[in-house]
Design a protein that fits this description.
Layout lengths: L4 E6 L9 H18 L3 E3 L17 H17 L6 E10 L2 E10 L2 E7 L25 E6 L2 E6 L2 E5 L6 E6 L1 H4 L4 H7 L4 E5 L8 H15 L3 E5 L16 E5 L2 E6 L7 E6 H10 L1 H4 L13 E5 L22 H26 L3 E5 L4 H16 L7 E5 L7 H14 L2 E4 L3 H11 L8 H21 L2 E5 L3 H6 L12 E2 L6 H15 L1 H11 L20 H5 L2 H12 L5 H12 L5 H17 L1 H4 L28 H8 L2
Parallel strand pairs: 1-2, 2-3, 5-7, 8-15, 9-10, 10-11, 16-17, 16-19, 17-18, 19-20
Antiparallel strand pairs: 1-14, 3-4, 4-5, 6-7, 8-9, 11-12, 12-13
Length: 645
């Protein structure tokens, strides 16, 4: 699949115990239907050709041969397909019996993966029949049928010939549940996707535990995990199997087939993201345990299982910084507000200041900063009257934002001041020889810098700390005045993107209710603008930020793709089309993508000298903790790729 996405599926056929021919028929049917869907990786349960609950029938040569015959049928059904298929069966080798997964591709059995660890307690007694694959020092060779041999080992990696960085590792059921899972070693040897052929019976609470186990395993190993559980066709003499399968990616569940549903679990894995995470996280690449020994032998098998098909299943989130479930969004918002408030409270307590000083414009960012400051003062049991909220109307201040600012300060019970700046800035223009009718950069930036000077001087006068209001999105785009609103004494919004700011303000509006909620909703309905240019003839805002730098929802999407997922321009545009295709045409998405890269690279000099600020999410631009980037780095590679799309 394009851009190193991998379409995976886990299927639990309604099999018959000890009837390999029947089971092969069911498996072949699923292979055919999944091939039509463009599936590239298909996983079946543990011992899916024989059934897991065969008991002592595993010792019968008739069953073993029947499974080999069934495997041949399955292998032949994959001819001409790019799909890589894993099926389970018992394999006899050198007077021992092994519980194996067969990796099948394009008519051939590429390798046999022997199970390493066995449960032999309570309802399980696998050691009665099977030997551990850990006995292999290297790899053995098993004759399957005439002219068909396959290597057998617990350590097998299947890689795509066109994209050899994409490697698939395999383990079986109990291998996941032990402290030293084989997949840990598989991942350290390059596997980014792990498949698990399982026969975990259903018990009260076990489904939740599977989720916990797989989420943690895929998260700490920075891999995808395709887990396929045995289904209802197994014997119910003592157990019941529910066919509960799931696909995880770096700790997040992409898909699940509910117990007893008979559904095929399908999902699209972003292998490129996983590989980027491994490059980014030093603790992963520097973690070399005994299972990642260089002496450990691995069977490396080539295959062509990646296609060039488009995404069909994976939903691309247009607002990756924002949770979508209302309850979860409210809880996340309260958590972020708490982090911001506790960080600010700590800084206030450490510096022993009496007051906090903020510039309040009536816009979203300063509103959020004021809400956070009120929380911080409440935590410190300080009077809100010591919060000095200053309105500084200038040339472009509209009546609505001015009224919002005043009403907000009154509703929150803080001390408010109004300091008009137009006359002073006009005198400053005269001092520097600037034409007051010239609405260029000096016209705008002089206002921003004068406002910052006022805040800093008031803070000195009142033993206060200037709380910054700028957000993550503005910092990414450089949409701030250097040494103006770019600067503060502590920046509480510095890692909060614009798309999330709205939801934080809305969540706080719901929490507070009353007069505050009414004012906050008025703020939310106001167009985003720095209000540095005079209003139009009707007194309305003339300067609309998103007309100049692009929609914030696009810029936040591009920022997340660049810094969190490591995506290049082509992949970013590809995903943006799927996220915003009905809202923005491709040429608009491309236009703002090119503009994003230009601004992001050009404005690094501002980010290299930002004030302290609390990190609340996975993306931050602090030069001290997250983004270390030279101010004069060239954007040519990114721009060339983006412009030529």
């Amino acid at each position: 699949m394009k851009h190193l996405f991998l379409k995976a599926a886990a299927a639990s056929p309604d099999l018959k115990v000890a009837d390999p021919a029947y089971n092969a028929k069911k498996i072949v049917e699923i292979i055919a239907s999944q091939a039509e869907k463009g599936t590239e990786l298909l996983v079946f349960p543990e011992l899916s050709l024989s059934g897991y609950t065969c008991g002592d029938l595993f010792l019968q040569k008739t069953l073993l041969q029947g499974c080999l015959d069934a495997l041949k049928v399955v292998a032949e059904s994959t001819k001409g397909h790019t799909m890589l298929v894993f099926v389970g069966l018992p394999i006899a080798y050198e007077d021992k019996l092994y519980n194996c997964a067969a990796a099948v591709h394009d008519g051939k059995v590429r390798a046999l993966v022997a199970k390493s660890y066995f449960p032999n307690h309570n309802e399980f007694y696998e050691l009665r029949h099977f030997s551990s694959g850990r006995e292999f020092l290297g790899a053995g060779a098993v004759r399957l049928w005439e002219h068909a041999w396959a290597s057998i080992s617990p350590n097998v990696l299947i890689y795509d010939e066109k994209h050899p960085e994409v490697k698939i590792g395999c383990e079986l059921c109990e291998d996941l549940w032990v402290p030293t899972s084989p997949s840990i070693s598989h991942c350290k040897h390059g596997a980014s996707v792990i498949v698990n052929l399982s026969a975990s019976n259903e018990l009260v609470g076990k489904r939740d535990y599977r989720h916990t186990l797989i989420a943690a395993h895929s998260g700490k190993n920075l891999c995808a995990y395709v887990y396929c559980g045995a289904g209802e066709g197994e014997s119910v003499s003592d157990m019941v199997f529910a066919g509960n399968s799931m696909i995880y990616e770096n700790g997040a569940c992409l898909a699940e087939s509910a117990p007893f549903s008979g559904e095929v679990c399908e999902g699209e894995i972003d292998v490129g993201f996983l590989l980027n995470e491994r490059r980014r996280k030093t603790s992963y690449r520097n973690c070399d345990g005994p299972l990642a020994s260089a002496q450990e032998e691995y069977v490396q098998c080539p295959a062509n299982f990646l296609s060039d098909a488009d995404l069909t299943l994976r939903k691309v989130d247009p607002t990756p910084f924002v949770p979508h479930e209302e309850g979860e969004l409210f809880l996340r918002a309260q958590s972020i507000l708490d982090m911001q408030a506790h960080a600010l409270a700590r800084r206030i307590a450490h510096t022993h200041v009496r007051s906090a000083v903020l510039g309040i414009s009536g816009g979203l960012d300063s509103t959020l900063a004021l809400l956070v400051t009120c929380r911080a003062f409440d935590l410190l049991k300080k009077q809100r009257e010591d919060i000095l909220a200053i309105s500084m109307p200038g040339f472009g201040t509209s009546l609505k934002t001015k009224n919002n600012a005043t009403a907000l300060m009154q509703a929150l019970g803080v001390t408010s001041r109004t300091i008009p700046i137009s006359q002073t800035v006009t005198r400053h223009f005269k001092d520097i020889g600037h034409d007051v009718e010239d609405f260029g950069g000096a016209y705008e930036n002089a206002q921003a810098r004068y406002r910052t000077m006022i805040l800093m001087d008031v803070a000195n006068e009142e033993n206060g700390l200037v709380v910054g209001t700028g957000d993550l999105s503005e910092l990414a785009l450089g949409w701030c005045t250097y040494n103006g609103d770019h600067m503060s004494m502590y920046a509480v919004n510095s890692s909060v993107p614009k798309t999330l700011v709205r939801h934080l303000v809305l969540a706080e509006a719901k929490r507070q209710g009353g007069r505050a909620e009414i004012v906050l909703k008025s703020v939310l309905s106001t167009e985003i603008s720095p209000e540095l240019l005079p209003p139009d003839e009707g007194g309305n805002i003339a300067q609309k930020t998103e007309d100049i730098i692009g929609p914030y929802e696009l810029n936040d999407f591009y920022l997340y793709a660049l810094l969190r997922r490591g995506d290049g321009p082509a992949k970013t545009l590809y995903l943006a089309e799927r996220a915003f295709g009905e809202k923005y045409p491709r040429e608009v998405l491309k236009k703002w993508l090119v503009a994003f890269y230009r601004r992001f690279f050009a404005q690094q000099f501002k980010r290299n000298c930002v004030p302290d600020g609390v990190k609340v999410g996975s993306v931050s631009l602090s030069p001290r903790s997250d983004l270390r980037m030279p101010s004069d780095a060239s954007p040519s590679l990114w721009l060339e790729e983006a412009e030529n799309l």
